[in-house]
Amino acid sequence: MSSDHSESGIDPDGFTHLDAQGRALMVDVSGKQETVRVAVARGRVSIASEVARLLSSGEMPKGDVLAAARIAGVMAAKRTSDLIPLCHPIMLTSVKVTLEVMSGAVEIEATAKTCGQTGVEMEALTAVSVSALTVYDMCKALDRSMRIGDIRLVQKSGGRSGDFTGS
């Protein structure tokens, strides 16, 4: 198989997930420059006030939910390419997940970092998502009405597409 982009139908400047025939493929990033890339994502799990109290006091029946969710988020970020089709495997240089219990919610933030040819947005978003699911799983016996939501990219730096700051 040739690596000539014109024969493969891949637009070397478009970085599309589709070939010339419209078939899905992994984007070829071999021509992109390695840069430091950082992405920050956030999300929230809405919880009952009693669950918030138990989380804050460390009295949850299943143990330290926040520690488990933090570890789950880091582990998920490292496995993003196994979970998201066509996502590149990335050597992460850092992943940080923080969880803060508020009145009626757990706020989650994940920061993923690499020095590579493609960004880490999906890794940060995956870390938040899996952390939120872990909170849900460990608290569901006490609150079946929990809601996971507002998962979003809030910051990205490095790479060809430039920097992004959201809310």
Automatic annotation (TrEMBL):
<dbReference type="GO" id="GO:0006777">
    <property type="term" value="P:Mo-molybdopterin cofactor biosynthetic process"/>
</dbReference>
<dbReference type="InterPro" id="IPR047594">
    <property type="entry name" value="MoaC_bact/euk"/>
</dbReference>
<protein>
    <recommendedName>
        <fullName>Cyclic pyranopterin monophosphate synthase</fullName>
        <ecNumber>4.6.1.17</ecNumber>
    </recommendedName>
</protein>
<feature type="binding site">
    <location>
        <begin position="122"/>
        <end position="123"/>
    </location>
    <ligand>
        <name>substrate</name>
    </ligand>
</feature>
<comment type="pathway">
    <text>Cofactor biosynthesis; molybdopterin biosynthesis.</text>
</comment>
<comment type="similarity">
    <text>Belongs to the MoaC family.</text>
</comment>
<comment type="function">
    <text>Catalyzes the conversion of (8S)-3',8-cyclo-7,8-dihydroguanosine 5'-triphosphate to cyclic pyranopterin monophosphate (cPMP).</text>
</comment>
<dbReference type="InterPro" id="IPR036522">
    <property type="entry name" value="MoaC_sf"/>
</dbReference>
<keyword id="KW-0501">Molybdenum cofactor biosynthesis</keyword>
<dbReference type="GO" id="GO:0061799">
    <property type="term" value="F:cyclic pyranopterin monophosphate synthase activity"/>
</dbReference>
<comment type="subunit">
    <text>Homohexamer; trimer of dimers.</text>
</comment>
<dbReference type="InterPro" id="IPR023045">
    <property type="entry name" value="MoaC"/>
</dbReference>
<dbReference type="InterPro" id="IPR002820">
    <property type="entry name" value="Mopterin_CF_biosynth-C_dom"/>
</dbReference>
<keyword id="KW-0456">Lyase</keyword>
<dbReference type="InterPro" id="IPR050105">
    <property type="entry name" value="MoCo_biosynth_MoaA/MoaC"/>
</dbReference>
<dbReference type="Pfam" id="PF01967">
    <property type="entry name" value="MoaC"/>
</dbReference>
<feature type="active site">
    <location>
        <position position="137"/>
    </location>
</feature>
<feature type="domain" description="Molybdopterin cofactor biosynthesis C (MoaC)">
    <location>
        <begin position="26"/>
        <end position="159"/>
    </location>
</feature>
<feature type="binding site">
    <location>
        <begin position="86"/>
        <end position="88"/>
    </location>
    <ligand>
        <name>substrate</name>
    </ligand>
</feature>
